[in-house]
Amino acid sequence: MTFVPHQPKRSQPLLIWLIVASVGGVLATAPAGAMAAATLMGFGTDRSVPAQIFFWTVLTLPIAILVSPLLAWIAYGLRQPRLALGLSLAPLLWAAAIGLSVLGSGPR
Question: How many Cα atoms sit within 13 Å of 27 on the Cβ side?
Fold first, then answer.
């Protein structure tokens, strides 16, 4: 008989949250991709720092929306609930960066 160490129980609310976040991420990928394509065309000649932050943030948003839930599921499978929750909320950092860059590039 082999010894099996005690593993913590998986959180049911976290499971539900990961399902919702995954479905939401898949649904949000198409609009985020369209927004990234529009950003490529609209970048123009503005080479200011806020414009570059906005450009790169919007360009990588669809990737973050897809990769974050995937990594969160891996963390959930490895019984790391805090990491799973943090990874599932990671695309909000992109939203905050977009908001800050828009605020920073206001009228001069």
Answer: 6
